[in-house]
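seq:
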Amino acid sequence: MTKIAFLGLGIMGSRMAANLAGAGHELTVWNRTAATAEDFAAAHSVTAAVTPAAAAAEAEIVFTMVVDGPRVRDVLLGQDGAAYGAAPGTLFVDCSTIGPAWTLELGEALDAKGFSLLDAPVTGSSPKAEDGTLTFMVGSTEQEFETVRPALEAMGSLIVRCGARGQGQMVKLLNNAIAVSNAATLAQALVVARRAGADMEALVEVIASGAAGSTMVDLKARPMLAHDFTTLFKLEHMLKDVALCLEEGRRLQVPFPSAAYAQELLIAGMARGRGPEDFAAIIEPVEDQAGLRL
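struct:
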């Protein structure tokens, strides 16, 4: 079993860390809200640290799972950051979705201090985080990949090495952009069907069973119909991910118009105050465009 520090105990991180603890790894946790870490530690018989540096002090592997690039930089390299407590040779694994540019910048900073950073963003939302069936997209060397694989397997059912550092992030951004583009298309279809007077339950049943079926249909169709935006994946986080993907597309001079349209719906959802809720809420801007409600 491995000595692991886990930094960030939000919706995803808390479930991922719980699976590491359940697998028997020696775990120390940290969270920006100290009470969250203390409660987690008590519930899972692990150790809570008061700073990222303290959490990383004896760790062989340090996981981060926070919101964005600036937050990862702060947790790793800011005041009392993990890099100032870790021993030389410690392996840092960032499971946040921050894009390739942030990953490469932070990786260079950690390299200079004698550490290694690999990117291992995840997909699967909170239910898969809870049951340990996440998908990890890893950017690393082959040796780093094999070192962290046992810990990742405690949290995920599919662990894929996508190439060198930063490539895990690129695959994750594309995955999320495709997912929300799919959800946007689903939302438009539901609105057309409502205007046509279609049997909505029959429509969803047929879509889910045929060539148009997808995870987004399974997860988002009925919440869209019911306007149930209970959070599986926050709208504001999906907007961040799509914006990062489109930024990479502009850098590479490759268009991604379906993702650009989805971004506009997400921005409109933010304007409606839906940021903390599930991104199924993009149905509302589509409804606005048509002048109807499901």
